């Protein structure tokens, strides 16, 4: 027997168009294998007369009124793929208040208002799913929810912004920053305004969501203080590559005793580490846990088709719940109580890029506790650099400092005698 679920969608851009296309392609398969017919009743957009790359199914209503969709009594499930924070929040709250299931790809909103929306969903007995909000096509949130129940996550290290990874990979291949960003925008990887992509804010939002799932811990943007990629150049990426590293925008979170250490910043990853091989729009999330050890989840992190696939997987889970009447178990972990610190507070090894005479750098090193090795004319390896020394060095010399993955010195960090310390290489 086939049951029809009435669906409304907010947004028909890169992701929304992908949803329409994938829905059309897989309708028969969904009906055959799941016994569900997803009927797209209405779609809301900003500009009614804008050119569309997809054709809506016959009978689907196109409107420029969000209310027209979220307040339609027949609609049982709302897909929010329009972006924005305040407007999307209002629409989602309205949908949940009317008992509709909600699926969204909106990391900005979920990072900043996720717990509040989850509480409302719980109160209303509705599903609120957002798999596509982290790492696009990789089903990482459901994996963390379902496959780590008896396990303990110790660290996560990921490449979780497709645009930034695309730009860094293209710069390592010799393209300019501007060229690479333009291509990433044309491919639909970047946000409507790409500032968050290149400033590390998009990756920080995703890390905030991952932190909830992995550690039950809320993080704020100011605690992460993300560093983006706008200060990097093709010559830095190429110089790192020629000498055994790949510069990647890493989003990291690691428990160490009673502390949770986090970072979103460009990091030099040694070529023999798997994350260094993740290129273009690909994302990867390396999870280190007590029971499994290291697992690496990879896949496309942005783009129409991959993101739409994640959205539709959520839609199908929510549709099944609507049909069976079974309530979602909103098993949010208690808010964590770990002390949050940034990785950049730890002494570690850096690559320093810039036109600085070796004797000048050596003089700074002799006056402090760090050591310097010249790699090439414009590239130095600076070992044992503390946070204070790094700040002094940055103020004194025109050097771009990029931390090397896996070099943080944990011996100076206060230990909780009850907790186990994990040495994570990445
Ligand atoms: N692009 C990607 O690869 C990924 C995107 N996401 C997230 O998915 C969401 C959508 O992204 P994307 O598809 O790229 O965005 P786009 O900019 O391509 O599309 C946004 C769509 O929303 C519509 N829209 C915007 N504001 C309103 C409004 N106030 N009322 C009605 N419609 C509105 C626009 O209408 P109109 O077309 O008329 O202008 C457009 O159709 C964002 O939250 C994004 O962060 C998540 C993972 C990957
Ligand atoms: N702009 C984002 C889209 C997916 O979340 C990215 O580039 O990763």
UniProtKB/TrEMBL annotation:
The keyword RNA-binding does not apply. InterPro entries: Asp/hSer_DH_NAD-bd, HDH, HDH_cat, HDH_CS, NAD(P)-bd_dom_sf. Residues 139-316 form the Homoserine dehydrogenase catalytic domain. It is an enzyme of class 1 (oxidoreductase). Its EC number is 1.1.1.3. One of its GO terms (molecular function) is homoserine dehydrogenase activity. Keywords: Amino-acid biosynthesis, Methionine biosynthesis, NADP, Oxidoreductase, Threonine biosynthesis. Coiled coil: none annotated. Pfam families: Homoserine_dh, NAD_binding_3. Residues 11-131 form the Aspartate/homoserine dehydrogenase NAD-binding domain. Pathway: Amino-acid biosynthesis; L-methionine biosynthesis via de novo pathway; L-homoserine from L-aspartate: step 3/3; Amino-acid biosynthesis; L-threonine biosynthesis; L-threonine from L-aspartate: step 3/5. It catalyses: L-homoserine + NADP(+) = L-aspartate 4-semialdehyde + NADPH + H(+). Belongs to the homoserine dehydrogenase family. This is Homoserine dehydrogenase. It comes from Lactiplantibacillus argentoratensis.
């Amino acid at each position: 027997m086939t049951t029809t679920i009435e669906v409304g969608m907010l947004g028909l851009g890169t992701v929304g168009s992908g949803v329409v296309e994938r829905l059309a392609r897989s309708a028969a398969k969904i009906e055959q294998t799941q016994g569900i017919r997803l009927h797209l009743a209405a779609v809301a957009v900003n500009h009614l007369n804008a050119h569309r790359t997809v054709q809506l199914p016959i009978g689907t209503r196109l409107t420029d009124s969000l209310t027209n969709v979220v307040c339609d009594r027949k609609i049982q499930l709302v897909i929010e793929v329009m972006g924005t924070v305040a407007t999307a929040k209002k629409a989602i709250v309205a949908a949940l208040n009317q008992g509709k299931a909600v699926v969204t790809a909106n990391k900005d909103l979920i990072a900043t208002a996720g717990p509040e929306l989850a509480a409302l969903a719980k109160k209303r007995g509705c599903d609120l799913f957002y798999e596509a909000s982290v790492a696009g096509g990789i089903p990482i949130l459901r994996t963390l929810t379902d496959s780590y129940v008896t396990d303990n996550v110790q660290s996560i290290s990921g490449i979780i912004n497709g645009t930034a990874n695309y730009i860094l990979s293209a710069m390592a291949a010799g393209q300019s920053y501007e060229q690479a960003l333009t291509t990433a925008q044309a491919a639909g990887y970047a946000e409507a305004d790409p500032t968050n992509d290149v400033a590390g804010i998009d990756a920080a939002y995703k890390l905030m969501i991952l932190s909830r799932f992995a550690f039950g811990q809320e993080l704020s943007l100011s605690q992460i203080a993300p560093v983006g990629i706008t200060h990097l150049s093709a010559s830095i990426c190429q110089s790192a590559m020629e000498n055994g590293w790949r510069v990647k925008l890493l989003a990291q979170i690691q428990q160490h005793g009673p502390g949770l250490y986090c970072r979103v910043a460009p990091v030099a990853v040694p070529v023999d580490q798997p994350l260094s091989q993740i290129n273009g729009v690909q994302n990867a999330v390396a999870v280190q846990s007590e029971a499994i050890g290291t697992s690496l989840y990879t896949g496309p992190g942005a783009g129409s088709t991959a993101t739409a696939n994640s959205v539709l997987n959520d839609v199908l889970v929510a549709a099944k719940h609507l049909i069976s009447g079974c309530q979602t178990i909103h098993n949010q972990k208690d808010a964590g109580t770990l002390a949050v610190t940034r990785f950049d507070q730890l002494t570690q090894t850096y690559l320093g890029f810039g036109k600085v005479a070796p004797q000048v750098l050596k003089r700074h090193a002799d006056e402090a506790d760090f050591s310097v090795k010249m790699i090439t004319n414009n590239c130095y390896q600076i070992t044992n650099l503390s946070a204070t020394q790094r700040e002094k060095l940055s103020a004194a010399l025109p050097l771009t400092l990029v931390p090397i993955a896996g070099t943080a010195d944990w011996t100076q960090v206060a230990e909780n005698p009850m907790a186990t310390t994990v040495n994570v290489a990445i």
